[in-house]
Design goal:
The structure is a single chain. This protein has a 5-stranded parallel β-sheet, with helices on both faces. With about 650 residues, the chain is mainly alpha-helical. The chain is built from 29 helices and 5 strands.
Length: about 650
């Protein structure tokens, strides 16, 4: 079954049940990493358990940097592989290894230096401070396994290899689980290392995982001169992910600091909640991951009812699954806490806290699924806003306010935060449903057959035209094609891409228009936009292989960069001329023309940068730049003369 049939027609419940199990297994393995250390450390010492709770945000920050950088590499590689540029993709993969080493060195150095101060900021207990410093320094200094494994895993996943990373995660988890009791308690003749043993086991598990993916994931580093451009592009795509993941780090750190004013045992209770949370959230996390491709495809195909049904199914499944977590947290909190600790203070605090938190699980379903939904439909600004509202604007401020009334009141932070976030998500969802693209039916085009047919053409010159908004680039390109007697592709190219991919023609056409003013890179890297971009690039290459033609827009000059018979043209004009053209042709007012020029050119530049890593409009990327203020006819004639001369020279 092809992608269009699977995501567009298959029963939604069957899709989720098919996609979810592998994701749940991967997340279960990650959960074991968090739980095993706490399980054995809690049996060894109460101070060690508190130390793990305090150091947890630092570990999350480390993971955010490692995984976020890997996401940037994965996204760039996927785009290059989609364009058939395997060598270019391998260049980016090659940059990943030295980049991971540099990030590890920076992170390890900073953490080594600040760990004592961080420990003293978090607690006044000398035993806990000592454990934080020991555990924190070991897991940070020996985190090179985490950084390398994260990069190499994303390299393999970009190429479609999901099995090797899964094997690596299993190997790492098993290594950690085996070494934890051996090193913490000093079994079978090994030295008793206590909390240092737990840290060593964690680092060993990460190194073991890295060794599994190293053979297939390592790529030879490219020439040094490529590093600045490649690293810049990687971080443009990776930084949004790093920032979003870091938001969780800082809110947990904030809550820890609030609770530390009461007691170390309160911090420990919160830490144990997060250990259990990772386990109970596995089904919900899998649901979040699995609905993204389904919603993305159907939104881009303008099958909005199916998007709604997928969201509804995810919420229903989520509520059913999280109800189990609520039941456990409300009815048996003490038993859950005793698995990790026997400290009566921790159990007493946690018994009350777990019940409040358990109630929050049900509204948490929508507070966590709404951001994923908006990410899937390309509304990256709304998705990011919900994450920031939940983790930055609500959790810590509300935690501080409620804590002023006492420790028991602090736990009210969790249900209130999830309810308020869900309410904001509901408002955003109503705004989404009010969009014209969502409300209106998919248009039926009378000229669709003509638009989705490649036009007969002989081998020869291919002209790509990039243009500033209002420079008459489309008209000039069409006129040049008429003069040369070759096919012209603009809306026809979009129609072909729509037919090829099963996506909606209007959605593909409006990628630039829908691009937000901020977080453009995050929007352009979303699943739904990447589908449209891949379809466009595939069609551009097919058009070029069909014969001589003129192609306007869509970074065609970059997509066809390895074709010898391409004339790359950039059409520009003074701003005053372009304003006048927009007012004359489209009836824009003066202010509308200025605003549209600014917005459109920024969106085109961002799109080109995202696709190519290069600056849009840079004359070095084009054989010919034309000032269209000389007139449409004259500009077209200049292109024709240059292309004709170029073709004649090629035949000599």
């Amino acid at each position: 079954m092809n992608t269009a049939d699977f995501f567009g027609k298959e029963n939604i419940s069957r899709i989720l049940l098919k996609l979810a199990p592998p994701v749940m297994l991967a997340q279960l393995i990650q959960a074991l990493y968090n739980i095993i250390d706490s399980l054995f450390v809690g049996r060894y010492s109460d101070s060690g358990l508190t130390a793990l709770s305090i150091i947890y945000p630092v570990q999350l920050l480390m993971i955010a940097f490692a995984v976020g950088t890997g996401v940037g590499i994965n996204t760039v590689m996927a785009a290059e592989l989609g364009a058939g540029q395997r060598d270019k993709a391998n260049e980016y993969a090659g940059v990943g290894t030295p980049l991971a080493v540099v990030l590890w060195l920076l992170f390890a150095s900073v953490c080594w230096c600040i760990m004592p101060a961080f420990a003293r900021m978090s607690t006044s207990d000398p035993a806990v401070i000592a454990d934080i410093v020991v555990y924190g320094r070991i897991v940070c200094v020996f985190s090179f396994g985490l950084f390398l494994e994260s990069i190499w895993t994303k390299v393999l996943q970009a190429g479609g290899d999901m099995k090797t990373p899964m094997l690596a995660q299993i190997t790492g988890a098993v290594t950690n689980m085996i070494l934890d009791p051996l090193l913490i308690f000093g079994m079978f003749g090994l030295p008793e290392m206590g909390i240092a043993g737990a840290a060593a086991a964690t680092a060993a598990g990460q190194i073991a995982a890295a060794l599994i993916v190293m053979k297939k994931g390592f790529r030879k580093p490219p020439a040094r001169e490529t590093y600045p451009g490649h690293i810049g592009r990687i971080f443009r795509l990776g930084v949004p992910n790093i920032l979003m993941q870091s938001a969780y780090t800082f809110y947990i750190l904030g809550l820890n600091l609030i609770l530390s004013a009461f007691s170390d045992q309160a911090v420990t209770a919160l830490g144990l909640y997060y250990k259990w949370q990772t386990f109970f959230f596995i089904p919900l996390g899998a649901m979040q991951t699995c609905i993204v491709p389904v919603i993305s495809f159907n939104y881009a195909a303008r099958n909005i009812n199916r998007c709604k049904k997928t969201l509804s199914a995810a919420i229903r499944f989520g509520l059913a699954l999280m109800a189990v977590g609520t039941l456990c947290f409300v009815t048996v909190p003490a038993q859950m806490l005793r698995i990790f600790t026997s400290d009566p203070q921790v159990i007493g605090i946690g018994r009350i806290g777990f019940r409040f938190v358990g109630v929050s699980f049900l509204p948490m379903v929508t507070s966590l699924i709404f951001p994923v939904f908006f990410q899937a439909v390309g509304a990256s600004l709304k998705s990011s806003a919900l994450t920031v509202i939940r983790t930055v604007l609500l959790f810590v401020p509300l935690g501080y306010v409620f804590s002023r009334f006492g420790l028991n009141w602090f736990w009210l932070t969790f249900p209130v935060t999830e309810i308020l976030t869900s309410m904001v998500g509901g408002v955003y969802y109503r705004q989404f449903l009010a969009k014209d693209y969502v409300r209106e039916e998919k248009p039926v085009r009378a000229d669709a057959e003509e638009e989705t047919a490649l036009k007969p053409s002989e081998p020869g010159v291919i002209i790509t035209i990039a243009r500033e908004h209002g420079s008459s680039g489309k008209q000039i390109g069409r006129l040049a094609a008429q003069k040369l007697g070759i096919p012209f592709y603009y809306k026809e190219m979009i129609a072909l891409a729509a037919r090829e991919s099963g996506l909606d023609q209007e959605f593909i056409s409006d990628i630039h228009k829908n691009s937000p003013n901020i977080l453009r890179d995050l929007y352009l890297s979303t699943h739904v936009v990447q589908q449209a971009v891949a379809a466009q690039e595939k069609i551009i290459r097919r058009i070029a292989e069909n014969g001589s033609c003129v192609i306007v827009g869509r970074a065609a000059d970059y997509v066809l960069r390895n074709y010898d018979n391409v004339v790359r043209v950039f059409i520009h004009a003074p701003k005053e001329y372009r304003i006048g053209r927009l007012m004359e042709v489209y009836g824009d007012s003066l202010q509308e023309a200025k605003r549209n020029i600014r917005r459109s050119d920024k969106a085109r530049a961002a799109y080109y940068k995202h696709i190519s890593g290069s600056r849009w409009g840079d004359a070095r990327h084009y054989e010919l730049t034309v000032d269209s203020s000389v007139g449409v006819e004259q500009a077209a004639e200049l292109i024709v003369q240059y292309a004709t001369r170029r073709e004649e020279n090629a035949k000599k």
